[in-house]
Design goal:
Blueprint (H helix, E strand, L loop, with lengths): L3 E3 L10 H11 L1 E4 L2 E2 L10 E8 L3 E15 L13 E8 L6 E7 L4 E6 L5 E3 L2 H5 L2 E4 L6 E17 L12 E10 L8 E3 L17 E5 L1
Parallel strand pairs: 1-14
Antiparallel strand pairs: 2-4, 3-13, 4-5, 5-11, 6-7, 6-12, 7-8, 8-9, 10-11, 12-13, 12-14
């Protein structure tokens, strides 16, 4: 596992969805979610990659997943999207004094997001704040029960930096964080992470195991 350096691509905000994905493919930072932290109980390992870049105002993350079961039951903000086919990013700016944010997306782009503290306090993002997160889901936006097969899907999320109290001024910004893949209510439940999580049971809310992430 290498540290993540997120490249600055200033014109991303002016591109359409296809152009953004193509630009991320050519110039973004790509990593794989492959830490199988609880392999004895949850051995399933769907291929999951993510590609990152940022503009002056937004963080761009494009997830790609290949899996055998697909589920998207949750369609309302701040519901249990981790039960569905889900990808997640947790971010803790160095300047945030222990505060961090979770952004969780199922495969149709439903969001569960909150600001959190190490002491267990959680404040869900408002509907207006969630509406400011652009999402482009290859599975569409309609909910569905679990289906079986061989599926590939991607989700592009555009997260305003202001939601994590960051103002980018042309200099590197230090964060810590982790990226996850899960689907706890599917026929093949799984809990994978980019940075290893060393707990006895699946638990993604673990800032002690966050790893360095830099906005270049």
């Amino acid at each position: 596992m290498d540290n993540i350096h997120i490249p600055f691509i200033p014109d991303l905000d002016n591109l359409d969805t296809g152009e953004i994905i193509s630009r991320l493919e050519s110039d973004g930072e790509r990593h794989t979610v492959e830490s199988l932290n609880w392999a004895a109980e949850y051995p399933y390992h769907p291929l999951t990659t993510f590609t990152l870049a940022h503009s002056e105002k937004n963080l761009y993350i494009d997830f790609f997943v290949r899996c055998n079961y697909l589920r998207a039951v949750n369609y309302a903000n701040n519901t249990n999207v981790g039960d569905d086919s889900c990808v997640q990013i947790y971010l803790q700016p160095e300047s945030a004094a222990g505060k961090y944010w979770n952004f969780e997306f199922n495969c149709i782009g439903t969001v569960n997001a909150a600001s959190r503290s190490k002491h267990g306090h959680s404040a869900p993002l408002s509907d207006d704040e969630i509406a400011s997160i652009a999402r482009y889901a290859s599975c569409g936006t309609r909910p569905f029960e679990e289906i079986e097969g061989l599926f590939t899907w991607n989700l592009l999320a555009v997260i305003p930096l202001r939601l994590i109290d960051i103002e980018y001024c042309g200099k590197p910004v230090s964060l810590r964080g982790n990226i996850y893949k899960c689907a706890s209510a599917t026929s093949q439940p799984h809990f994978l992470s980019w940075a290893p999580v060393r707990t006895a049971k699946p638990d993604f809310d673990q800032p002690d195991f966050f790893a360095p992430i830099i906005l270049d």
